[in-house]
Amino acid sequence: MTRWTLLEGQGLTPLGAGAEGERVVLVADPAIVLHRVRLSARSAAGRLAEARALAADLAATPVERLHLALGAPERDGSRWLAILAEDRMQDHLARLAEAGETADRMVPAASLLADPADASAGGASPEGCAIVTARWRDRILVKGDGFAGMVEPELAASLGARTDAPALEALLPPELPGPAPDLLQGAYAPRTSTWKDRRYRLAVITLLALSLILALVPPANRLIRGLIADEAMDRATLALASRALGQELADAGAAEALIRKAAASLPEAGLADRLALALKAIEPEPGVTLASLSFTADKGLVLTLSGPPDAINRVAAALERTPWTLRQEGERITLGARKPTGARDGASEAEARLASVRALAPMVAAARRAPSAPAAARLSSALASAGLVSGVSASGNAAATELEAVRAALLLPLIARLESMGTWITRLDVRRNDDPSLKVQLEVR
Fold it and tell me: Residue 125 above 50 pLDDT?
C-alpha cells in the first residue's frame, strides 16, 4: 500500500492513512510543467539528450538551469517529461530534509490524474472532456493529451478545463501509476553500491581500457567523441522536427529542409512568450509599472513603462537576455523579431541543423495546429473560455474586438489561448483605466 505525502510551499501534508509501504511524495508546485514527448533514442543517454533538446524548446529558462525527469513509456511509446528549475528541485529536497522525512519516489502531483481518454471511458470525466482536473487548496491540477501541471482557476478556465474539480485526496490510487515521472533522477537519484556487480566491474574495466587507447591516440579520441555527439544531436533534430510536422522522419538533413520550407511562408508568432517574459522582468522591480503596451506583427511588442530610470534599465537588461531582439528608447522598450539562432563558430553540421530546427519548429507546430474555423469564431471561443463577453466584428479573414475593462490576470491567458488555437494576432493595444482594469483592442486572423 502506497504511503502518500504532499509537499508544497506550506510544508508536508499526509494524504490518507497507512504507515507501511512505498513512500511517495507528491510535489504540488505550479512551476513544474509536464509535456508528453516521443523519443526515438534507444539508450538512456540518447533519450536524455533528446529530452534536453526538447526542454530547451519548451522552457524559457536555459536548459543548464533545469532539472528534467522522464517517465516510463506508455502503451503508445510516449513518455511524460517533467521540467522544473534546478533551484526549485533543491528547495523541495531541503524542505523534505528539514521535516526529517525521506521519499522512495517524488512525482509531480498532476501525474496522478488519469489521461483524458481513460478518464472519459471510466466515467471519471464527461465524455469528450479534453482536460482532466483535480483541486488542491486554491489551485487546479490539469492534465490534457499533451501537457499537465498546476494552475490558478482562472487559467484552468481559459484552457477550457472544468474548475468544479474533485479534491486530489479523492483520486489517490492504491499504487503510483507506472508512467509517472520520478523527480529523483540524475543527480538526485538514490545512490546504490554497484561495484559488487560483476557486469558493472567488467564494464568499468572495458571503459578504462578504451580510455587508455584513446588517450594514446588523440585524433581518434576527438573523432569518436565528435561522432557520438553528432549522432545525439541528429536524434534531437529528428525528434523536434517530427513533432512539429506531425510525421515520423528518418533523416536529419531532410528534416531541417522540411522545417525551413514550412517556416518560410509563416508570419512570426510569439506574442504570449514576449508578454510573459516582459511581465516576469517587471515583477522584481516594485517601482516599475506598465503604463501601456501595443503589438503589431511588423513592429513587435512595444512596452511603455513608468518608474525610476535605473529600475527601467534593469528591466531592459533582463529582457536583453531573452530570445527576442530588444530596442530601448528611454521608458519605451520594444521586443522585436526573434534573434537569429545559429550554431557556434566551428560547429559541426549536426549542431547547425539542431540550432536551425530548434528555432523554427515552434512556429511550424503552431501553424499545423491552426483550425479551419473562421477568425471571428476562434476569437469568440477564446473570449468565452476566459469568461469575457464582447462583440466581435469580422472582415474577410480578420476579426477584431474591443474590451472596455479587463482584469490584468486574464490578458496573458487570453493571448496564450488564441496562439494555442493557431490564431495569428495582428494588433494588440492595451491601456490602463482609472481603476486596476485594462482597456484592450485586439485584432486577429
Answer: no
Taking the C-alpha atoms of residue 71 and residue 257, their distance in angstroms, rounded to an integer, is 31
* Digit-coded pLDDT (tens) for 240-259: 888 888 888 889 889 899 98
The answer to whether the CB of 74 falls within 8 A of the CB of 38 is: no
pTM, 2 dp = 0.48
What pLDDT, in 10s, does the model give residues 206-240?
777 766 655 655 555 555 555 567 787 888 888 88
- Ramachandran category for residue 345: left, alpha or beta (phi over 0 → left; psi -120 to 50 → alpha): beta
Residue-wise DSSP of 182-223: PS--GGGSPP---TT-HHHHHHHHHHHHHHHHHHH-HHHHHH
**What is the rounded CA–CA span in Å between residue 53 and residue 419?**
23
CA distances (Å), 177 to each of 2, 80, 112, 195, in order?
11, 12, 7, 31
Which domains does the chain show, CATH number per domain? Answer: 3-188 (3.30.420), 271-339+371-444 (no CATH)
- Of 105, 92, 123, nearest in space to 179 by CA: 105
